[in-house]
Amino acid sequence: MTTDPPDKTPKRPKPNRDDFTAKIRNALALRAGYRCAFTGCGIATSGPSDEASHKHVSIGVAAHITAAAPGGERYEPELSAEDRAAIDNGIWLCQSHSRLIDVNPIAYSVSTLRQMKADHEAAIKAEMESMKSAPRHTDFIALGPNVVFLGELVGVEEDTWSFSVGHFVIGDLSDLISYIDQYAAMDPYDQFVLVNSLGDGRELSRAPAWTKYNELVIKVGVRVSFPRIDAHRLPMGLALNDEHDLFVINGQLARVSGLDALPQNIKTCMSTIRGEVFYAPTYGTRIREYSNEFLGSPWLPELIKLECIRMASIPYVERNGLSASSTPLKAVRRVLKVDQISTEGDGDWFAFNFHLEVEGIGPWAAEIKLFIP
Questions:
Q1: Exposure winner among 22, 186, 311, 337, fewest CB in 10 A?
Q2: Could you tell me which of 255, 252, 250, 251 has the C-alpha nearest to residue 240?
Q3: Residue 54: pLDDT above 90?
């Protein structure tokens, strides 16, 4: 009996693929509203699973417009690996249409797919910008630092607020459950709820709870609104000039206080990035993170407004455990509106219009530049 010698022919390695990162895939899904961008489809690509209350089903695909590897449809060898894995080379589709564009590359050219993506994202943007006329689930609400959803405040009873949930923007149901499970052990500064339509937020008094019948409903216990400082009594601090530097007047470092200190307080507070202060790791905003991930999205101004609400309404307690005497923004009672004037900055400084309700002043507005590296 004889046996054939083993096949020693070297196997051809599979070409390296320039795949999207998880961050790019998530951004494509968010910009598409988690709906298939194929013209005439628009099907929802994510939804609840019957397997368990915290699980979901996804049929969405971050598809490459030009192929991720040689031999793929619409492959362009002159592109760099970075360009192939960039968000501009992706389109969010359902699984069926992801397959269709690859088996029929002549009908679905690069230019056709780019236009399809642009048209779909423009439609999503127009839908988002018309939210004010929509009756339900149009308000941005944050529960702690890692759960943001579109929903509605549907009930207030003594110290309990109830929200209906339409769609998660950041995080999902499993993140909500983790937040509830870990509530007792987390930093008190992360125990909060923020409501864009109110322009205000509250500290939580206990772990949230959720139920689901016809829709998901979250109930939170809230503390009374934390007191603000009259803007005329804002404490004295070092002043900054138009170049955002300290400067000297009459041989001494310039100082500012009272209402004149409010714009500078907003600028320095909102420009501090969460995690960059060594002795206060949870202090600061997530504006840089949101700007990197949601630039060009109609959701970005809403998320920046949420951060402003948090800094205006949630007191920060130092590690020594002493009670906080004020919120970071001290005198801001409500955040009415925050608009980014332009996506083109002066270096790393970007101009915003702040429309606020200020303690001791009432409605107040100013253009202020924020540092977003």
A1: 22
A2: 255
A3: no
